Amino acid sequence: MNDSSLSDDLVEIGERVRKRRIYLHLSQEQLAEKAKISVNTVSRIECGQAAMSIDKFVRILRALKADANEMIGPRILEEAGSKSTESLFIRFRHLEEADREIVIQVIKALLDALEHRS
């Protein structure tokens, strides 16, 4: 994945976060409080200027009562090919145990949603 597509992905995810926040009638400040992150971080995520850690992503999902699929979006999932799979496994192995459990939970949720959408 090149820097341009990563940037596009961040913008798409940020836009989804913003739309969901607005749909729930939350201010950036309220979302930040619920997700236990700074308002500046919320703003940067929504503008596509900052990538999220898994921990922040999960906290935002919970605060927005959103599904990971909803936030990630189908285009991003489809473009994740086998080259990035190997990179993901390497990154996964370097996570702390608690973070690996969060990743596993998110993957299970994604798979469940994908299996039950038809």
Structural overview:
With 118 residues, the protein is mostly helical. The chain has one domain: lambda repressor-like DNA-binding domains (434 Repressor (Amino-terminal Domain)), CATH 1.10.260.40. Helix content is 77%, strand content 0%. The protein contains eight helices and no strands. Helix 2 crosses helix 3 and helix 2 crosses helix 4. It starts with a helix and ends with a helix. The mean pLDDT is 83.
Reported for the largest beta sheet, the result is: none
Q: Taking Cα atoms only, what radius of gyration do you get, to the nearest Å?
A: 14 Å
The CATH homologous superfamily is termed lambda repressor-like DNA-binding domains
Q: What's the number of helices?
A: 8
For the record, the CATH architecture stands as Orthogonal Bundle
Give the ordered list of helices and strands: HHHHHHHH
Number of domains as seen in the coordinates = 1
> Distance between termini?
29 Å
| CATH topology-level name | 434 Repressor (Amino-terminal Domain)
Low-pLDDT stretches: none
- Assembly type: single chain
Summarize the structure.
77% of the residues lie in helices and 0% in strands. It is mainly α. It has one domain: lambda repressor-like DNA-binding domains (434 Repressor (Amino-terminal Domain), Orthogonal Bundle), CATH 1.10.260.40.
